[in-house]
Write a structure and sequence with these properties.
With 591 residues, the protein is of the alpha+beta class.
Amino acid sequence: SIEPSSVTDGAGFARSTYTAGTVGGIIEIEAGDTKAQLPVVEDAVQMMIVDLWPLLAGVWFERFREEEPACVIKSIEAVSECGDFAESETDTPGEEETLYISRGAEVTLTANAAPGVSFPEDKPVWSGGGVDGAGESVTHSFNAPGYHIVTAQCEDSTVSIRIGVAEVKRIEITAGGSGDSDVHGHQQDPALVCLSEVSFKAIMAVDGEPTPDNRGAKCVVWEARRQGGPPPDNPITFAPVEKQGGELTVTFPEPRKYRVRARTQPGAWKRIYVTAVDADIELESVTNADYIGDREDGQAVYATNKDTGYVIIVLKTDPAGVTLPENSITWVGGSPGETPMTRKVSRAELIEAGEEVTATYCGTSEVRLTVYVFRGPPEPADTIVDIRDEQDDSIVSYPRVGEVDFKPAWDPAVERYKIYYENKKWKFVFEKVGYVLKWGVNSQGRTDVPDPTADPFPLGMNMDPDSTETEKKTQAKEDLTPDAMGKASFTKYWSSASVIRHELFHISDWVDDYYKPMISIFQTWIEEQEVDVTVSDLDPNAVMFDKMLVFHLKLIVETNNAWLEYVPESEKRALEDGKSLLQNLADAIEP
């Protein structure tokens, strides 16, 4: 990758200058049968190659090879069983070039030479942090706490690395309780912990400041034992626990006081005193919700309806009145209550699938329950009955002049019910029923008389085209005059206005005087229906699905009953309603 620039002088000498990109690289040169490799120790290497006389070329290369390359240290590596690994390529090491170790740990320091360079014997020379030695690698135990700068030097090349010698600053309880040695470092003030697995952590520090990610804790020595044990002739049942590492997990066998301590070697002990508490948790109460029952796995089920506020869950201890360790209860589900022994579930939103709430004490004792939040009583609907009419003259069959299709009353387009929860019962409301009643009129060829004073008067159906005005009016007056029942003969003439009124009266008569009163009674019956809420019937949609057919069949039965009341006198009532219209129309015709 290095391009030479050559100039040949008159004597046959070729002088070339090679510029290397990186100190420590290699330049290979070949002249005839002679080859050479040149370590790059400066930015530019100048050479003269005599290519006419092999002897002279050999002498030149021999002289070049006798020159020793510079001693260059590329990096220092530091490794310890009581730390991790660190590497440095600078003489001003910082955080990234720091190895954290436990006090007293042994560290192996290794210098790496630049490519193409071999360290001379007894090089490099090590110094700093109590390290005193020479050679590519040295080993040293760091007993003095604090930060130490260790330097490797070979001629003018120096590289340094920093060693952080950490000690135990304090002990923290990380599981099974809460507290640290700063607060509970005396027998008189022990921390409360679980009578099960309890985890402790040694917090490491250098010069009083915690180490990053608690480094330097690998070789911490732990000890845990009973405090205030029995006399020598009564053996201690809890053997001391010893472990090396930054964390300790121990299971205490009985409810009493214990001492746990940790240190580096050398280093002073840090102590924390704990009292293991023997207790269980139980469910004391659940307010603002109804107890439904227990599932097969023993999990309690509670239900309430959507509203403001919360369902409040309260625990108690067994035995009663025992003070539990801090942070010994782990909750899943719900939201924090006012104390660690309470939990709450909001009633502001529906939880129809249920929210499981679990409280676990010290990983051993557990309370589980599920809270459901269902719809409460709905607001009354604005429109219970929504029946509309629609004119469709095609439905009129011969020889009728008017007709209403009442069949949709038995198959409503809209039939809606709602289910809600109240006092351990599923209850229901009839929300809406709706359908369209089609009606129509058809003259069947008859002549309509919208204006009794028309001049000329329209010709009636099948009348002689030469009929006089008197003949036409006389026939129309006869056809439109109602009998005692209110019915007209409609032989050659008819009144579309009276037939329209007749059919619309049928609809309003049915809807207002028979169907709606029936629906009011039906609605009351629906509201009286209820189903017990059990642990096997907690899905309101499934309960509603099961009841829909029952409700629909009941609606059909009640519709039939209303129809049986409506039909017998329905035509009489409609004729009576339209009698005056026909009479007035007939009276207004003057032959």
